[in-house]
Structures are given as structure tokens and as C-alpha cells.
Amino acid sequence: MFKNLYPNTLYSPPSSRFNYVDSAKGLCVILVVILHTLTVEDIFNNLLFILRMPLFFFCSGLFCAGAMKLNWFHFSTLKVAPILWVYVLWSMIVYFTSFTAWALIQGEEVDLIRPLTILWQPAQTLWFLYALGIIYILTKLLIKVPVVVGILLSVAAYSFSMHQADLMSASFPYKLARFLPFFYLGYLLREVMPVYVSSFRKYWPACMVAFFGLTYVAFESTYLNVGPLGLILGLLGILSVLCLFSEFEKFRWVRFLAWVGKRSIFVFVIHRIPLFYANEWLKNSGYVGDTTIELFIVVGVIGVSLLAGEILSRKVSKSFFLAPWVEQRKILNNA
């Protein structure tokens, strides 16, 4: 799992890795920060709902085959538990450096109970790490059943989530049901996806137009609540993005997105801290709803998160992003 979650500062990418997947992850994390920053809803941002996190989970599933081959002990200790380590650690860091620190500054009462509930009420924005750990487990169970059964179960879970839950603010169990199919399908398509991308990359404009057009119709007509339609549209969007980045893989802007994608964990876990204080400034500045100012904040938050992540991982301790027992194992293996 860590070969696709953590940056090159901690791991060397395998030879089978594709830069366009890293570019897709870079786009994903940027879209997440934009979502958390912009206060004005627009149809484009809403349409990306069907793509943002499905793209991340699908890309993660593409590189999970090694983890799935491990026995349950090594799978739990070297894959799942390290994800939970990062989740719990950064849930504490984000909470105490933002909400708690601000409450103390304002002379308000500090809620010390909330950090204790993160295992059944996942922390805001960091829920994806908790979900990723659980989805790893569910996928390892799913691959033990026939592929047809696994796909049917995944489609059923997705359809149930889309029909029962609020599309934009689903509770954590519904998020699991919604994103598990993308991770599982990423695993199933790990060997053929490069072939599809290579074959269709020149048709990325048509794929992209089809994705946004069909998603707009489905979104406006509430068809996303109907069965696996959202799952199909999500896969179409994912293919469009991967084809786009594959076609322009050597362009600087795509290489920059790949660089960000390899460090996406930094932005995912850190961005809420600078964004929290930026939002507090916005409240009293009169610029709430000013898209230009908010986009400047997006750039600043991403830059601060990347810089802080580099400093913490290189200068302080890799344990901020890598479980200590995994790092010790790596040292022993290299000795």
C-alpha cells in the first residue's frame, strides 16, 4: 500500500509505476483542497463529486496486489495498522493544533472528548485514511470469492449507498460502501488498465466530454440515485483523467502534478491546519465568497502542506508518515 500512498522521500517507486497515475493523485488532492476551501458552490464542483475520491481509491487499488498476497498477520501489521497509525496520529495533531489551539486563544472551553471518538466518528477530512484501512481488509476478503460475486457485491454496496445516503455528505458507513467498489475494481483492473489507457488516450477529449455531459444530466435529473449509474460514470471519469495525463505525460504541468501526487499524503493530512486559520481570517476579512482570494488560499495551503511534510519527513521523524515498526523493519532488511 505504501508504495502508492507515500512520497518518494520515503519510498522508491517500483518500475511498474506509471507517472500518469501519480498525476491523477496530484489532481485528486488539489480538487479536495479546492472543495474544502471554496465557499461558493458551482455546478462544476458538484460534478466533480463523482470523480474526486473515487479517483483516489481507484488509483490506490491499482497498486495493492503486493499487499493482498501477504498472510493476514503481515497484512495487518505492515499494511493496515500503519494506515491506522497515520490516521490516529494526524487526527490528534490536526485537532490539537487547530480547534483546541484556537479555543484556547479565544478563551473558550476545550472539548477533550472529541479526539476519543475518532474510531466511530472519523475525523473530518482524515476519514479517508480510516476508510482506506478498512477497505484494504474488505478487499482482501472479496478477492477470496469468485470475481463475479465480488463485482455484484460491490455494485450492490455502491447502489445502496447512492440510493440511501445524502450524495454530498454521507455518513462514514455509506462512504465505505461508496468507495470500496472503486478500490476493488482498481485491483481487478491493475494489469489491463495500462492497456486501456494506452489504447484510448488519444480519445481523452471525447471521454471527458461524455463524462461531464452524462454526469450533468444524471446530477440534474437525480439519476445518480439509480443503481450503479454513478459507478459507471465514475469509471468513465477515471479513464478520462488517466488518458489525459498519459497523453501529455511529458509536459511540465503533468510532471508537476505527478510530483504533487507522490507527496499527496502530506497535503491530505496537513492541509486542514493552515486552512483552519485561513478560514478564521476569511470570516473577519470580508472576502468570504471571493473566489479569487479563496483560490490564492488553495495555492498557499497546498504549498504550506507540501513544505511542512517535506520538513517533517526529512528533518524531524519519518514516523509522522510511516509507522515506527515498519521503519525499523526496513532498516533491519537493509542491514
Overview features:
17 helices; mainly alpha; disordered N terminus; 71% helix; single chain; 335 residues
Unreliable sequence segments? 1-16
Work out the radius of gyration.
20 Å
Q: Briefly note the structural class of the backbone.
A: mainly alpha
SSE ordering: HHHHHHHHHHHHHHHHH
Q: How many domains is the backbone divided into?
A: 1
* Number of E strands: 0
Strand content: under 5%
Number of helices: 17
From the spread of the alpha carbons, the general shape counts as globular
Main sheet properties: none
Distance between the termini: 23 Å
The average pLDDT score comes to 87
Description:
This protein is mostly helical. It is built from 17 helices and no strands. The protein has one domain. α7 (127-142) crosses α9 (172-188) and α15 packs antiparallel against α16. The chain starts with a helix and ends with a helix. Residues 1-16 have low confidence and may be disordered. It has helices at 2-5, 19-37, 43-47, 52-62, 65-68, 72-105, 127-142, 147-164, 172-188, 193-200, 204-220, 229-247, 252-261, 264-270, 272-283, 291-316, 324-334. The protein is globular, with a radius of gyration of 20 Å. Helices cover 71% and strands 0% of the residues.
